[in-house]
Fold this sequence. Notes:
The chain is mainly β. It has helices at residues 168-176, 198-207, 308-314, 320-323, 351-357, 367-370, 397-402, and strands at residues 14-17, 37-39, 53-56, 60-64, 70-73, 83-88, 93-102, 105-110, 116-118, 120-123, 126-129, 131-142, 149-153, 160-165, 184-188, 191-192, 217-221, 229-232, 241-246, 251-259, 265-269, 275-278, 289-291, 299-305, 329-334, 341-345, 382-387, 410-412, 422-426.
Amino acid sequence: ARRRRAWRAAAGATVTRFAEGGSRPRWSKTVSRGPPLATSGTSALLPLNEEDEAVEGSGRCFRVKYQMGIGIRDRPSTDPRWRTGSELKFGEVFEVVQEVRKGGRRYFELLDGRGWIFDWAEVEGERMELLELAAELYTVNFPDGVSGIVWSSDTTMRFCKVKEFASGADEMGLRQAGIREEDYLVMIDQDPVVGMPMAKVLERVWASRGQQPGQGTFYKVVTDGPYGIGVRAEPDKDGPRTGQDLIRGTIFEVDEIVEEKGKPTYLHLADDSGWVFDMRPVEPESDTVMNLDEVEPGCTCTMWRGSAEDLAETIGLKFKQDGKEGRPFTITVLEEGQPIQKVPVEPGANLRKALVDAGFQIYQDFNEVLNCGSQSLCGTCVLAVLEGDDALTAKSVNEKRAMSSNPPNYRLSCNIDIYGDVAVRIRPQGVKYGGPTA
């Protein structure tokens, strides 16, 4: 039973509590508005002479292939007088906002505002190509929400990509919109999802078409700013903060609603981590959260065609374990009939990958052969967290559902990143498998 709270609802307040397992509609109403459409951004193109030509960057990303790098200019020119003092190094990947073609060369304006570079130079009397196309960043509009795509991830669960299409009809429409297998999902609307656990990404994908990730009551953070809303320790927007924030786009489950005339509506998080509030009852134009049943289906998806490594470099995404920042953490592993073992890992490492790479068998019985290979599709990589649960990625809505029949410390290791020392027992007894989280 949930612990009793130290507050009481004021007179006239309406409190709605949802019993576990209560029936809730899984789908909200959807109005069809047509197939997904490919779109591209627009930019202010540079004024040109009549013989020059300018085109939009259209999300193209290039890689420097010249060993000596390229000096950046402050205008579309090769003249060294216009060098800014900065340069692009060999192997660096960058996105362009526009391209100018003149005098037999192509000049590219860098999206980050540093200046211009060009495509070739004469070196020892010969033409030397300085750049190569590395990737393409593009946007697709899904009027009814994202559907028809089977998603997958890498073993670290950092990047969500297109594995295949759900049907032949889906493939035809999605290919026409420009989507291909192995393309990475970068943003949903204006909210980045790169580096986010795959289960969290899929919650947002489902919400885009009005689908709830479970049978409870679910809300979405819809603040104007990307930083979202701070969780409170009690149903009071001026109350003490817990230190947890729900960023814009987060999908969360609530088990209690407190409504009082002339005050915000307060929502208790089903994981018992605190309260958030809906300001619309007192400030109709102030959006903070919205019930998924109220969210109109539809979104845009920004996709990346290229390597995951180039994607991380281009958008400036840094993982602590990539830069070897911070002290290594330790996984203490308990296994039936074996001595206690310790595995050093870098901050942010994926728990399943770390254990498998260290040679541990984390699956029981036939699941050793039949598991999904860290695609969040089987729900069999179960272990028991004995210590350090607060140093691990929090459970997603789908992991909570899949593990609901197990002790609270039983986790799906493919859903977990490590941010501190932790002790786990692999292949714990009495596991009740609850299915996939993808």
